[in-house]
Amino acid sequence: MMERLIRWTFGVSGRDEYQKAEMNKILSGSAVLVYWLLYVGMFASLIIDGFWMHSVTAGTIILVIIVIVWGITIGIQMRKRGLYQVEAANEEDLHRIYRRINFQVLRDSIIYSINGYAGWSLGYFAMSPKEPPTIWETVSFMVVFVGVYTIDTWRYRRQQVVKAWEDN
């Protein structure tokens, strides 16, 4: 269960024993659970601040900063150790990995577009409850947000595929 949560959260497949050992050094089960509990707490405090208080409290800002810093730190450690790299043995395996990457990026883009829209709408609602965002502002923000995320993630993950049958 914990390996599935780690794979779903950070998009890493645990095929390699070295990768599993390095991930276990970085991501213990309790660290991932604490990360998700902080994330849920941040989301709940944003909802409470937005709907009941129409302002953002210091506790919410601190939770947001902790979650962002923790996520960035884990991502940097995993990139430094090459844990996002996947090795393709042949051309067929390469196409299978590319299809999986395309599916993961599509899934993540849908999830982050929903989160981005919720954050955008909640931010507007919390700061000015009388003037909701126009449809043009919302659509333009979401297109830019999702587009930049999707393209960057897709390019980075495809660059991490190592073609084992080619000479370097």
UniProtKB/TrEMBL annotation:
Entry keyword annotation includes DNA repair: no
The entry's keywords: Membrane, Transmembrane, Transmembrane helix
Recorded superkingdom: Bacteria
Keyword Membrane: yes
Species of origin: Schleiferilactobacillus harbinensis
Transmembrane segments: 26-48, 54-76, 109-127, 133-151
Protein name per its UniProtKB record: DUF3278 domain-containing protein
